[in-house]
Specification:
Blueprint (H helix, E strand, L loop, with lengths): L7 E2 L11 E5 L5 E4 L5 E2 L1 E6 L4 E4 L4 E2 L5 E2 L10 E10 L8 E7 L7 E7 L9 E13 L5 E10 L8 E4 L12 E7 L6 E11 L1
Parallel strand pairs: 1-2
Antiparallel strand pairs: 2-3, 3-4, 5-16, 6-16, 7-15, 8-15, 9-12, 9-16, 10-11, 10-15, 12-13, 13-14
Length: 204
Protein backbone atom coordinates (compact mmCIF):
# COMPACT_ATOMS: atom_id res chain seq x y z
CA UNK A 1 0.00 0.00 0.00
CA UNK A 2 1.36 3.42 -0.99
CA UNK A 3 -0.12 5.52 1.80
CA UNK A 4 1.92 8.39 3.25
CA UNK A 5 0.83 9.36 6.77
CA UNK A 6 1.84 12.85 7.97
CA UNK A 7 1.09 14.26 11.41
CA UNK A 8 -0.59 17.67 11.42
CA UNK A 9 1.52 20.32 13.16
CA UNK A 10 1.87 24.02 13.90
CA UNK A 11 4.45 26.22 12.24
CA UNK A 12 7.87 24.51 12.51
CA UNK A 13 11.21 26.21 12.99
CA UNK A 14 12.66 28.00 9.97
CA UNK A 15 15.03 25.60 8.17
CA UNK A 16 18.67 26.31 7.36
CA UNK A 17 19.66 28.23 4.22
CA UNK A 18 19.00 26.28 1.04
CA UNK A 19 16.36 24.04 2.65
CA UNK A 20 12.57 23.93 3.01
CA UNK A 21 10.24 22.03 5.34
CA UNK A 22 7.07 20.33 4.09
CA UNK A 23 4.28 19.88 6.67
CA UNK A 24 0.49 19.77 7.07
CA UNK A 25 -0.78 22.75 9.04
CA UNK A 26 -2.76 21.75 12.14
CA UNK A 27 -5.09 24.75 11.81
CA UNK A 28 -6.12 24.58 8.16
CA UNK A 29 -5.20 20.91 7.45
CA UNK A 30 -3.48 22.05 4.24
CA UNK A 31 0.03 21.08 3.01
CA UNK A 32 2.54 23.91 3.40
CA UNK A 33 6.16 24.50 2.41
CA UNK A 34 8.18 26.63 4.86
CA UNK A 35 11.17 28.19 3.09
CA UNK A 36 14.52 29.24 4.54
CA UNK A 37 13.26 32.82 4.88
CA UNK A 38 10.48 31.73 7.26
CA UNK A 39 7.67 32.20 4.72
CA UNK A 40 4.87 29.60 4.58
CA UNK A 41 4.01 28.91 0.94
CA UNK A 42 1.19 27.13 -0.86
CA UNK A 43 -2.59 27.10 -1.13
CA UNK A 44 -3.00 27.83 2.56
CA UNK A 45 -6.79 27.99 2.85
CA UNK A 46 -9.90 27.75 0.68
CA UNK A 47 -13.67 27.88 0.99
CA UNK A 48 -16.77 27.75 -1.22
CA UNK A 49 -20.50 28.20 -0.90
CA UNK A 50 -22.96 25.33 -1.06
CA UNK A 51 -26.16 27.40 -1.41
CA UNK A 52 -27.36 30.80 -2.61
CA UNK A 53 -27.61 33.75 -0.19
CA UNK A 54 -30.30 36.43 -0.53
CA UNK A 55 -32.13 38.21 -1.94
CA UNK A 56 -30.76 40.82 0.44
CA UNK A 57 -27.66 42.91 1.17
CA UNK A 58 -29.59 46.17 1.68
CA UNK A 59 -27.53 46.51 4.88
CA UNK A 60 -24.04 45.30 5.76
CA UNK A 61 -24.22 41.49 5.53
CA UNK A 62 -21.51 38.89 6.11
CA UNK A 63 -21.03 36.74 3.02
CA UNK A 64 -21.61 33.10 3.97
CA UNK A 65 -18.60 30.84 3.26
CA UNK A 66 -16.35 33.79 2.45
CA UNK A 67 -14.26 33.08 5.54
CA UNK A 68 -10.67 31.95 4.90
CA UNK A 69 -9.02 30.33 7.92
CA UNK A 70 -5.57 31.71 8.77
CA UNK A 71 -2.92 28.97 9.28
CA UNK A 72 -0.62 28.62 12.29
CA UNK A 73 1.97 30.81 10.52
CA UNK A 74 -0.39 33.77 10.97
CA UNK A 75 -0.62 36.52 8.37
CA UNK A 76 2.59 37.13 6.44
CA UNK A 77 3.62 39.79 3.93
CA UNK A 78 2.86 38.75 0.37
CA UNK A 79 -0.20 36.65 1.21
CA UNK A 80 -3.06 37.03 -1.28
CA UNK A 81 -6.72 36.58 -0.34
CA UNK A 82 -9.06 36.26 -3.34
CA UNK A 83 -12.84 35.91 -3.55
CA UNK A 84 -14.93 35.24 -6.69
CA UNK A 85 -18.63 35.97 -6.22
CA UNK A 86 -21.47 35.15 -8.61
CA UNK A 87 -24.30 37.62 -8.11
CA UNK A 88 -27.57 38.87 -9.57
CA UNK A 89 -29.53 42.00 -8.64
CA UNK A 90 -33.00 43.31 -9.35
CA UNK A 91 -33.70 46.78 -10.72
CA UNK A 92 -33.98 47.99 -7.11
CA UNK A 93 -30.96 49.58 -5.45
CA UNK A 94 -28.91 52.46 -6.83
CA UNK A 95 -26.40 53.07 -4.03
CA UNK A 96 -22.64 52.64 -4.17
CA UNK A 97 -21.98 49.20 -2.66
CA UNK A 98 -19.37 48.77 0.07
CA UNK A 99 -17.16 45.67 0.28
CA UNK A 100 -15.43 45.10 3.63
CA UNK A 101 -12.69 42.58 4.44
CA UNK A 102 -13.10 41.44 8.04
CA UNK A 103 -10.74 39.55 10.37
CA UNK A 104 -11.93 37.60 13.41
CA UNK A 105 -13.62 34.48 14.72
CA UNK A 106 -17.27 35.57 14.75
CA UNK A 107 -17.79 35.15 10.97
CA UNK A 108 -20.21 38.07 11.20
CA UNK A 109 -20.05 41.84 10.77
CA UNK A 110 -18.78 41.92 14.37
CA UNK A 111 -15.34 40.93 13.06
CA UNK A 112 -12.79 43.74 12.72
CA UNK A 113 -12.86 45.78 9.50
CA UNK A 114 -9.49 45.53 7.75
CA UNK A 115 -10.34 47.42 4.56
CA UNK A 116 -13.65 48.85 3.29
CA UNK A 117 -13.91 49.67 -0.41
CA UNK A 118 -16.81 51.78 -1.73
CA UNK A 119 -17.66 51.61 -5.43
CA UNK A 120 -16.41 54.52 -7.50
CA UNK A 121 -19.58 54.40 -9.63
CA UNK A 122 -22.86 53.45 -7.97
CA UNK A 123 -25.32 50.81 -9.09
CA UNK A 124 -28.10 51.69 -11.53
CA UNK A 125 -31.78 50.75 -11.64
CA UNK A 126 -31.20 47.80 -13.96
CA UNK A 127 -31.40 44.04 -13.59
CA UNK A 128 -27.84 42.76 -13.70
CA UNK A 129 -25.74 39.66 -13.11
CA UNK A 130 -22.10 38.74 -13.25
CA UNK A 131 -18.97 38.04 -11.25
CA UNK A 132 -17.30 40.19 -8.63
CA UNK A 133 -13.62 39.48 -7.97
CA UNK A 134 -12.05 40.86 -4.79
CA UNK A 135 -8.33 40.57 -4.06
CA UNK A 136 -6.53 41.56 -0.86
CA UNK A 137 -2.71 41.65 -0.78
CA UNK A 138 -0.83 41.88 2.51
CA UNK A 139 1.90 44.52 2.35
CA UNK A 140 3.10 44.53 5.95
CA UNK A 141 2.08 42.57 9.04
CA UNK A 142 1.97 42.90 12.82
CA UNK A 143 -0.05 45.28 14.97
CA UNK A 144 0.41 48.05 12.36
CA UNK A 145 -0.16 46.05 9.20
CA UNK A 146 -1.17 47.37 5.77
CA UNK A 147 -3.20 45.68 3.03
CA UNK A 148 -4.07 46.72 -0.53
CA UNK A 149 -7.37 45.67 -2.07
CA UNK A 150 -9.21 45.78 -5.38
CA UNK A 151 -12.78 45.02 -6.48
CA UNK A 152 -13.34 44.07 -10.11
CA UNK A 153 -16.70 43.71 -11.88
CA UNK A 154 -17.50 41.50 -14.86
CA UNK A 155 -21.22 42.08 -15.49
CA UNK A 156 -23.75 42.11 -18.32
CA UNK A 157 -24.98 45.67 -17.59
CA UNK A 158 -23.93 48.67 -15.52
CA UNK A 159 -26.54 47.74 -12.93
CA UNK A 160 -24.00 46.40 -10.42
CA UNK A 161 -21.83 49.52 -10.60
CA UNK A 162 -18.06 49.76 -10.91
CA UNK A 163 -15.05 48.34 -9.14
CA UNK A 164 -12.60 50.19 -6.90
CA UNK A 165 -9.17 49.79 -5.35
CA UNK A 166 -7.55 51.16 -2.22
CA UNK A 167 -5.01 50.74 0.57
CA UNK A 168 -5.77 50.38 4.27
CA UNK A 169 -4.47 52.50 7.05
CA UNK A 170 -2.69 50.83 9.96
CA UNK A 171 -4.61 47.67 10.92
CA UNK A 172 -3.90 44.96 13.49
CA UNK A 173 -2.87 41.75 11.69
CA UNK A 174 -1.04 40.25 14.67
CA UNK A 175 -2.08 37.06 16.48
CA UNK A 176 -4.20 36.08 13.47
CA UNK A 177 -3.59 32.30 13.47
CA UNK A 178 -6.94 30.51 13.80
CA UNK A 179 -8.92 33.61 12.85
CA UNK A 180 -10.63 34.03 9.48
CA UNK A 181 -10.53 36.72 6.82
CA UNK A 182 -13.99 37.10 5.28
CA UNK A 183 -16.19 39.61 3.48
CA UNK A 184 -19.26 41.66 4.21
CA UNK A 185 -21.25 43.48 1.52
CA UNK A 186 -23.51 46.48 1.93
CA UNK A 187 -25.49 46.96 -1.29
CA UNK A 188 -27.28 50.02 0.14
CA UNK A 189 -30.92 51.00 0.50
CA UNK A 190 -33.36 48.75 -1.39
CA UNK A 191 -30.61 46.49 -2.73
CA UNK A 192 -31.87 43.02 -3.62
CA UNK A 193 -28.83 40.91 -4.42
CA UNK A 194 -28.70 37.14 -4.63
CA UNK A 195 -25.24 35.63 -4.31
CA UNK A 196 -25.35 32.37 -6.24
CA UNK A 197 -21.77 31.24 -5.64
CA UNK A 198 -18.67 32.04 -3.60
CA UNK A 199 -15.21 30.53 -4.05
CA UNK A 200 -12.12 31.84 -2.32
CA UNK A 201 -8.48 31.04 -1.60
CA UNK A 202 -5.55 32.21 0.51
CA UNK A 203 -2.29 31.84 -1.39
CA UNK A 204 1.30 32.63 -0.49
Amino acid sequence: MADILIDNQTLPSTPAAGKSVLYVDSTTKKPVALDDGGTARGLLSRNASTASQGAGFASDTYLTNSNLLIPSSGIQAGMVFEWRIGVTKTAAGTAAAVFTARLGTNLTTADASILALTQQTAQTAAISSGMIIIRLVVRTTGASGVVAGVVGMATNTAGLGSGIDGVSGSVDLSAAAGKSMGLSINGGTSAAWTVTSVSCELIS
